[in-house]
Amino acid sequence: xxxxxxxxxxxxxxxxxxxxxxxxxxxxxxxxxxxxxxxxxxxxxxxxxxxxxxxxxxxxxxxxxxxxxxxxxxxxxxxxxxxxxxxxxxxxxxxxxxxxxxxxxxxxxxxxxxxxxxxxxxxxxxxxxxxxxxxxxxxxxxxxxxxxxxxxxxxxxxxxxxxxxxxxxxxxxxxxxxxxxxxxxxxxxxxxxxxxxxxxxxxxxxxxxxxxxxxxxxxxxxxxxx
Amino acid sequence: xxxxxxxxxxxxxxxxxxxxxxxxxxxxxxxxxxxxxxxxxxxxxxxxxxxxxxxxxxxxxxxxxxxxxxxxxxxxxxxxxxxxxxxxxxxxxxxxxxxxxxxxxxxxxxxxxxxxxx
Lengths: 226, 118
Description:
The complex is a heterodimer of chains A (226) and B (118).
Chain A: E1 5-9, H1 17-27, E2 31-37, E3 53-59, H2 64-75, E4 81-84, H3 88-96, E5 102-104, H4 116-129, E6 132-136, H5 138-142, H6 145-164, E7 169-172, H7 184-193, H8 198-205, H9 207-225
Parallel strand pairs in A: 1-2, 2-3, 3-4, 4-5, 5-6, 6-7
Helix pairs in contact in A: 3-4, 7-8, 8-9
Chain B: E1 7-16, H1 22-45, E2 48-53, E3 58-64, H2 68-76, E4 80-81, E5 84-94, H3 97-117
Antiparallel strand pairs in B: 1-3, 1-5, 2-3, 4-5
Helix pairs in contact in B: 1-2
């Protein structure tokens, strides 16, 4: 079995990284990646104790200039940089910048259908710069009826385009607590609802996150040397 | 011609904020499977909750062998039961009820011991 990694983990108050890692290991993950919200750059001391816990920073902003400023600021301090997308201009700015590792929520909170030309351009840039795009299954779990059908359709369309332009998908469930955890095989079953093949889902949970983390470690060493 | 359809027994573990009783869990599972696959999909899955211990949160579910992955996805879609935040983890899929029961007993025992140590 490959080693599975869970990205997009955020710790709620009162929960330690250690507890989350223990729960994730019980579910079958080899490691987790915790995203810190903007500004909280320095992780809590216990996070660095276990090598299976990785940390990154998620940049949330509505302005491109602010994004650039934050990327400049965090690039030398944080090895893994994640950008919260949504708006077309933010998605595009994020994927054009090779300093970004992952783009999250590219469809935004409302899951509206965007401009196809723009989407294609965004995916081409993401593929060129090696930026993974998050494939969040949490809305599939939490929604019901027509809303779920709409989300599944959007995910299906996105997946088709991602396949065509060879963009790396990253399977996540927006984990805030242990009740949001889903085991890798459950994630694979959920991903199949969006049309993802079993092998693709395994890659999106193992090889792709591991690749991102390896790059991160390389960059981490570069940061240390600097 | 084979008349009897093959079955699979899913050993699962409920991780919940509070205690979830059998009735509440059954409702959550059926609600999830109806919502995801509709009436025909739910009937094809031939789902049946064989046993569930609300104390340890461990139970066994029976389904048709062709629909194991569908049931897995439906279980993953459960995020609350009896008003409490819940996650269901599939521990093992077995071909016989005996196999599932043996592992369920072992797991329940281990879980009780772990809780006693705490």
